[in-house]
Design brief:
There is one protein chain. This protein is an all-alpha fold and about 575 residues long. The chain has 27 helices and 3 strands. Strands 2-1-3 form a 3-stranded antiparallel β-sheet. The longest helix is centred in the N-terminal third of the chain and has 34 residues. Keywords: Membrane, Transmembrane, Transmembrane helix, Transport.
Length: about 575
Amino acid sequence: MEGGVVEADASAFKECFSLAWRNPYVLRLAFSAGIGGLLFGYDTGVISGALLYIRDDFSSVDRKTWLQEMIVSMAVAGAIVGAAVGGWTNDRFGRRFSILVADFLFFVGAVIMAAAPSPTLLIVGRVFVGLGVGMASMTSPLYISEASPAKVRGALVSTNGFLITGGQFLSSLINLAFTNVHGTWRWMLGIAALPALLQFILMLLLPESPRWLYRKRREAEAEAIMRKIYPAQEADKEIQALKDSIEAEIKEEGSSEKINITKLLKTKTVRRGLIAGVGLQIFQQFVGINTVMYYSPTIVQLAGFASNQTAVALSLVTSGLNAMGTIVSIYFIDRTGRKKLLIISLCGVILSLGVLSGVFHETTSHSPNVSKQETSHFSSYTCPDFSLATTNWDCMKCLKASSPDCGFCASGTNKLFPGACLISNNTVKDLCHSEGRLWYTRGCPSRYGWLALIGLALYIIFFSPGMGTAPWIVNSEIYPLRFRGVCGGIAATANWISNLIVAQSFLSLTQSIGTSWTFFIFGVISVVALFFVLVFVPETKGLPIEEVEKMLEQRDVHFAFWKKQAGESEKKANTNV
């Protein structure tokens, strides 16, 4: 991978399967490290369903939107610290050590959450889990990348992305499985300790990254591992290329340990690599993906589906499509290329967010009216604000009442007919259900609810194969070896900071400006992201690190992304003509 020019292989996907038979050791390394991606995905997905039942158990969480956002986003805050520390531990102690620490933190956090007697301790457990997820988010793809032959590097790093989305789908299944079990959300959150324990055991049996070992002058260990990774006829060549690359870096710098921010920014290739890598990580979050993954059941309820169980079941669609999209990415990432896949992905995301914005606009502007006759049927529980109203109310206005909070009890004849605006508590909710009516506190009945699900499905279908996996792949291969751990940590930290901003603000945004305008903002950001990819992101498909560095040095902006770039030999031939 560090040697001379390695041409991109259009059949990398088939090559990956072939590798499973010829050298299962590489896949063993990739999938063992990829469990970190599974943990990452599980934590992202499980809170979406668990939050519905946490609200039921803790009235303070149900009443306060900021507390719901806090429970979700504190894991993200922990991940920011974990990713930042992970960059340092990766370079100082190694990739394997970082993964082991991440597993320990995740295990402790899962146990704390499962036993939490209050929202405060639940948040503490979320922070621990976040620390582990943050370290794993940048270490797993790095470890896999450094243990992969160049021809299948993209495909194998994509397996980490597949395990992330697989973890999200698994969390949806777990959420659905425990909806009728006593302690619902405790099981949902606590069961995550098992894969963390499994990976800890597996990583104890696996070696350190051979490239990190070479950086630390442990050549014998590194060579032994390289010979297991590469076929005998390629191993010597790869070992020599890696040795030459590292010695050249050490000679240039005078020491292999002097890494600081000033040096990063002054090095042209690293600076340009950081612009592309960090920018992709920021835009990955700001186009809204984790609003869908963290809050998908809540979004389903906002679209007009009242039941917790229904919302959790329908969220399986998004997580399932996300997992399938990553399989598509594994096939196309080394065949089509990173940049082209990103551009196609963003075009679809823009279209999907436009659909969602339009659907939610129709949903909120055509909600059922509140009937005084229907409300008087529950006279003891009438919403106080509605009793004082001098104008006509609809469902959306009812749900915005806040002194106290109110809910909408739909008509027993047809949920789209006028219903009742009542005080929101468990007694009233049970009373409404006892008459065969639906109870709404998050969104209103709508004939457009299924269109919102189609919009969400389209969003995931387009996002997952491109923006879902490509940013991590580009960040695993765009930086020089010497700076890869630190730069990967910076990029992952940027991802988690962006994630925190989105997670902490989504519910508040939907309350203040509405769900429609919230998705419209994500759509505008997606347009900006598209232009960013066109201008700043290079194509790294099938290229060794040396070629990527040359491309960044020359700042070869390739706007015609649909055309095949000329290889180095072709460029030289044209120059000599």
